[in-house]
Amino acid sequence: MSTRPAGSTIKPLAIYAPAFENNLITWSSIMDDSPVKKVKDEKTGQERDYPKNYDSDLKGYQGPMLIIDALKVSKNTIPVRLSDLLTPKVSYDFVTKELGITTLTPASGSNGATLALGDGGFKLHELTAAFQIFGNGGYYTQPKMYTKVTDSEGKVILDATTRSKHQVMSSQTAYIMNKGLWSVVNDGGSGRAAKLANMETIGKTGTSNDRKDLLFMGATPYYVAGIRYGHDDNKLTIAKNLYSAHIPVWQKIMTEVHKGKNPAVFELNDDGVVEMAYCTESGGLAHSGCPKQGKGYYKATDIPAPCTIHPQL
Ligand SMILES: [Zn+2]
């Protein structure tokens, strides 16, 4: 029940999904991984670059990079830039009105650091429930602690077996986000230790910037689950050799939970989504002259222009 930072697990919910939904970015958009501004460091009083890339696999600043890579390695700079473009209010409204996040105050609705970087207070079960939208095509159902309660004679007292769900984003955005979070686990991203055998797995890592909280939110075609790893008293930072310790814990728990289930992959509605090759240097659609190409997922209504930095052969 405690409220703890969400770290980077907030980025898909508050930043990337709304940015795709509003067509601010595509899979291969390129944005700048560089400091957004200078801030005064609270401890030293010196000016420093903001934001730092805390739990990124790629240390420091990389300059222009693909959106999908920024998500995969959990950059902080690009979500802060996207938050400025979206406005924190759009992110705030989305997570509080559509995704059941109840612990944010309106003040945090104007605070880009809360919504882009996950500072401030979130409840683990609310964050976890919000992640369901990436595994089910964009529908939110309020989580319950029970499915059914009966009395000693079998009379139903509480019944949550049928609950209303509502669509919080287009199926196209949900499909593209599912593929992006797939990359985090399956394509060299920060969540690779979460991968389950014979069960498609997607997810996102998170670390609070004081290193007191480690999080992982993940989903399979059957379940969504979230884990927070840290000290009970919340006073100690986590030892360096344990920075990734929570992900294998998630993986082991979920392996048990899935015992006896048939192997499965996500089967999401792909209407209005196209898979196309892009140029990894320009982010434009690839042609015969582009030396390195990747596979991207795009809304059929929002496809990037062909690459112009390489001559067509
Ligand atoms: Zn090219």
Give the secondary structure arrangement, pairings included:
Elements: H1 10-21, E1 30-33, E2 37-40, E3 47-50, E4 63-66, H2 67-72, H3 77-86, H4 88-98, H5 112-117, H6 124-130, E5 139-141, E6 148-150, E7 156-159, E8 165-167, H7 171-186, E9 202-207, E10 214-219, E11 224-229, H8 246-257, E12 273-279, E13 293-299
Antiparallel strand pairs: 1-4, 2-3, 5-8, 6-7, 9-10, 10-11, 12-13
Describe the structure.
The chain is α+β, with helices and mostly antiparallel strands. Helix content is 26%, strand content 19%. The protein contains 8 helices and 13 strands. It has helices spanning 10-21, 67-72, 77-86, 88-98, 112-117, 124-130, 171-186, 246-257; strands spanning 30-33, 37-40, 47-50, 63-66, 139-141, 148-150, 156-159, 165-167, 202-207, 214-219, 224-229, 273-279, 293-299. It has a 3-stranded antiparallel β-sheet, sandwiched between helices. Helix 1 (10-21) packs across helix 3 (77-86), helix 1 packs across helix 4 and helix 1 crosses helix 7 (171-186). The protein is globular. The N and C termini lie far apart (60 Å). The mean pLDDT is 93. The structure holds zinc ion.
